[in-house]
Fold this protein.
Amino acid sequence: MTVDAEPLPASNAQPQAVDAESGGTPGATRFAVVVTSYNYRDFVIEAVESALAQQRRPVQVIVVDDGSTDGSDALLRERYAHDGRVTLICTANGGQLAAFQRGVAAVAADVICFLDSDDRWAPDYLARLGGLYDARADVDFVFSDLHLFDQQTRVMKFHDGAVDLGYTAISTYMFTQWYGAPTSALSIRAPWARRALDLPDSFRDTWRLSADNCLVFGCSVLGAHKYYLPTGCVDYRIHGKNGWWSNHSPSVEYTNKMHSGALIRHYAEKAGMGPECVELCKLEFLTKPHPSWRETRRYARLAMMRRVSLLRKWERALGILLHGWRVRG
């Protein structure tokens, strides 16, 4: 089905109904896939087909063409306009954040998986995610490792194995800590994705690129429970046109960090957070069943930022270090 969407859907827009025959097991987590695309005609079909080829079928595959000028929209219409498995949304160009918002507004599923149109998934990606989401109703946000291909070949990973990260609001607020991955390795329970993307219109220009920051930082600061699950199923294409990846100049890095800081402060204001939240750093740390040594040291540093006597700072930091050592055996 094709939808021509010029205005951005209102925040209270109703999602489209889900076709009961589109897949999924009764009682199991229902997945929607949101593919956003701009001028990636050479890659977008491979991305969409990788979503459609999942062993655990998504109930929705929503493809948002963000005003492409390279014929992507025509190619997508030709391929999927009459494919009942795909909802195709063709819009005026608004940038990645606006495309995320349009796609998420059309979701009627439990968990949203995001996929860039130049990347692809192995067929068992959703099955691996589903095993975790089905078993852990308390987990809100799952991200995976990525396998770089095309112009580079290596693995991007957060940790060597799966990690229950618990809550990450204070660490993100105080250190601008990134608990996530690029777009194609992100999956989020739908209410949390909507909350993270509920941003003022002025943010759309700032986050025309790298809007995955809004998902990663927003879910952390607003209080989502995060989990890292390496799947080996996400292929992340490096081809010289990847936006942030192809430009590491000091001015771009400075601007990105300034924008990230402003974004985090916006979410913190919504959540009622301020610098005093550092007093709760040990409680946040204790939500992590098996914290890495790096994470343990990070929270010990947070304890040293408390506005108490030096002795009490050291007591709290030492307590965190000892707890981290004990749970790691």
In short: The two ends are 54 Å apart (CA to CA). DSSP finds twelve helices and 13 strands in the chain. Residues 2-271 form a domain with the Spore Coat Polysaccharide Biosynthesis Protein SpsA; Chain A fold (CATH 3.90.550.10). Confidence is low (pLDDT under 50) at residues 6-24.
